[in-house]
Amino acid sequence: MSNRMWGGRFASGPAEIMEEINASIGFDKRLAPQDIRGSLAHVAMLGTSGVLPAADVDAITAGLKSVQAEIEAGTFAFRRELEDIHMNVESRLTEIVGPAAGRLHTARSRNDQVATDMKLWVRDTLDGLDAQAAALQQALAEKALRHAGTVMPGFTHLQSAQPVTFGHHMMAYVEMLGRDRGRFRDARARLNECPLGAAALAGTGFPIDRHATAAALGFDRPTANSLDSVADRDFALEALSAASICAVHLSRFAEELVVWTSAQFGFVRLSDGYTTGSSIMPQKRNPDAAELVRAKAGRIVGALTGLLIVMKGLPLAYSKDMQEDKEGTFDALQALSLCLAAMTGMVRDLEPVAETLAKAAGSGYATATDLADWLVRELNLPFREAHHVTGRLVGAASAKGVGLEALSLEEMQAAEPRITDAVYAVLGVENSVASRISYGGTAPGNVRAQAERWLAQLSGGEG
Ligand code: ARG
Q1: 49 burial class (0-12, 13-18, 19+ CB within 10 angstroms)?
Q2: Rounded to an integer, what is the distance from CA 165 to the centroid of its chain?
Q3: 113 Cα–ligand 1 center, Å
Q4: pLDDT (tens digit per residue) in 13-25
Q5: pTM
Q6: Ligand 1 centroid vs 435 CA: distance in angstroms?
Q7: Which residue's CA is the nearest one to ligand 1's atom 11?
Q8: Average confidence (pLDDT) over 334-346
Q9: How many angstroms separate the CA atoms of 355 and 7, rounded?
Q10: 92-130 burial string, b = 16+ CB within 10 Å, else e?
Q11: Beta-bridge partners for 160
Q12: Using CA positions, which residue lies closest to atom 12 of ligand 1?
């Protein structure tokens, strides 16, 4: 049998493989709510514009609501031979309403329909990701407030560099997530133009009111060029770009959790809820959730790359290639949502191991910069010279296998005779972090102020 939606000029139906490669219903059925919402707005507008009589509008509206109810109840029979969600809905509508259902597709095409559906889905999903990222920021800022003064090593090149606080490290991710959320919101603002009514590619001769459908669907305005309306997938690409950057942030944090929970580091403890045991090694507590968050960046960045390559070189306007936008976009944004939820749970539960962190913070001559700064401040040495003096002292301490604070004053003075015993005050890790009071620095007071600023912003809903 030829396709009953477009089969007029076809004598026979598609080959089995044609049907398989062509069908998208397996994955676009999730657009059913958006599709019906779009159709309800479209038919209402056809009525007010005088394109359809009220009787048809009422019948179609009631029919669409029945279809929606069937889909929600799980009783709707999706059929692959009907290709996609648009034709599945319309076909069932025809069964319910009769021939009047055929008038719904006046002044539109599946091309503007699918663009509208996808935009609605991406828009909702971006809103959800924004809220989830805010919840993660909240968990991080709360943890930071509690550990504003908990010292830990700060790293560059993964070598101990200078002591920082655990709270400061958490707040770094709050900043990253703040930018991620900005990108979600930017993407949302730019996508918020309605393609419906662009029809197949050229617009329509019917006296439709695209401003009315745009407003009914919560868009700021209709799109201004019909070719662009049906050919544009920037909104999915932007959402995937923003999602990719966010996934990369989460992946970096996940990597830190994996390293920090190892027996060799022992910096933090994850809860039982976010670790798994080994079936053979009873001592193990594996950070599987963190590992999977780290890994899922792969499929999210992969979806972005995949869609960029699908779109590259496509001539205007719509091509069936664009049907390939869906699986990757659905999968990637859903994966990011899962990662955000898992990260939030891990952060709420995790506990830093303060003693281990403090010990590690003091090792590796992490306060060498404080010593150099002291020489500059107190003895007025040029920083470069102070750097050399400090280097000699680190060498002396390392030859003895001790920390800088264990060198005697005589040993200090051998490197620079004007050093006094006041120097010991800056060598402790606590002193080091307390001194970093420059704006954005790791001093506990700064960290507390930043955490409080974010928490106020997040609870005010402006975050
Ligand atoms: N399932 C299609 C898609 O996702 C809908 C649009 C089909 N348009 C067409 N002219 N065949 O892109």
Answers
A1: middle
A2: 26
A3: 9
A4: 888 999 999 999 9
A5: 0.93
A6: 62
A7: 320
A8: 98
A9: 74
A10: bbbebbeebbebbbbbbbbbbbbbbbbbbbbbebbebbb
A11: 155
A12: 323
